[in-house]
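Design request, tokens follow.
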């Protein structure tokens, strides 16, 4: 066994030695070739790597462009959606506004403000007293000689205008308009009486000692009248309709009387309450009727100006 092993080792050593001798020149020349081959291989690999990188860059650019186009399309779509939403909101707002306008009464070109001219019948609560009969303080019963200076029936005429302040009762009632009314009227009582001593007392003048000597007889008559200036709030219903009832809850008025009171007073403040209605007949031309009660808390030195007026009027819208 040892001999065979020793023989095998010797043969192996010899083969290795021969191989070393044979391959030594080739080994000397091989590094140069290997170097050239490595350089060529590296050059080809770099080219392939550059080509691969270029293709990857091109693919990345294509992907970026596709993403950019996608973003632009998404932005455009978002803008269109936003515009559509804004347009939809505006359309809804306009629809709501049109619905609210349609729900309100239409004015049909009518004018809210109005100038009017009125006239009619008046009735005083009591007969007038005053200075017609200077022989005694009159009051409502008049002087001792002549009696009351006027009856209770009267006629009147006047004018005024309505100025629109609000068309929904200050937010409390739609279609109910609030006006400021300024008005004046002239009222004349139906009866007149002589101003001063009349023929009724001329017989007394003939009796000595009854009246002072030289007392003259005045046969002139006094026109018993009254001028009223008023300012009132007026609430008128059914805005935009042809027929419009209204009311005056309370208003201020100032009366000027003639003849004066026994104390030579001519002004009497008071208030008025009224109701009525007007109707549009054609192109801002109106006709109407009203009734008012005039009230003063106190008489004016014996003269009572309380009473009722009722009549009609013609109005022009402006």
């Amino acid at each position: 066994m040892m001999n065979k092993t020793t023989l095998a080792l010797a043969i192996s050593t010899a083969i290795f030695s021969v191989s070393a001798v044979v391959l030594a020149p080739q080994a000397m020349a091989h590094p140069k070739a290997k170097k050239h081959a490595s350089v060529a291989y590296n050059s080809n690999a770099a080219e392939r790597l550059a080509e691969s990188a270029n293709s990857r860059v091109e693919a990345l650019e294509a992907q970026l462009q596709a993403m950019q186009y996608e973003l632009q399309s998404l932005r455009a779509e978002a803008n269109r959606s936003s515009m559509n939403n804004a347009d939809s909101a505006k359309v809804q707002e306009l629809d709501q506004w049109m619905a609210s306008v349609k729900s309100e009464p239409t004015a049909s070109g009518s004018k809210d403000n109005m100038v009017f001219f009125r006239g009619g019948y008046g009735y005083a609560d009591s007969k007038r007293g005053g200075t017609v009969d200077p022989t005694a303080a009159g009051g409502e019963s008049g002087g001792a000689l002549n009696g009351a200076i006027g009856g209770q029936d009267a006629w009147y005429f006047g004018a005024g205008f309505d100025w629109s302040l609000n068309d929904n009762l200050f937010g409390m009632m739609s279609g109910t308009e609030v006006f400021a009314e300024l008005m004046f009227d002239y009222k004349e009582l139906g009866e007149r009486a002589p101003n001063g001593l009349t023929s009724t007392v001329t017989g007394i003048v003939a009796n000595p000692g009854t009246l002072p000597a030289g007392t003259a007889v005045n046969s002139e008559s006094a026109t018993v009248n009254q001028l009223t200036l008023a300012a009132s709030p007026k609430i008128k219903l059914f805005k935009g309709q042809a027929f419009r009832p209204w009311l005056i809850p309370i208003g201020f008025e100032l009366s000027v009387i003639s003849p004066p009171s026994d104390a030579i007073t001519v002004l009497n403040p008071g208030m008025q309450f009224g109701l009525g209605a007007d109707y549009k007949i054609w192109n801002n031309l109106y006709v109407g009727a009203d009734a008012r009660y005039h009230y003063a808390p106190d008489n004016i030195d014996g003269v009572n100006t309380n009473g009722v007026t009722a009549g009609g009027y013609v109005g022009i819208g402006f």
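Comment from the thread starter after seeing the answer: thanks! The two ends are 146 Å apart (CA to CA).
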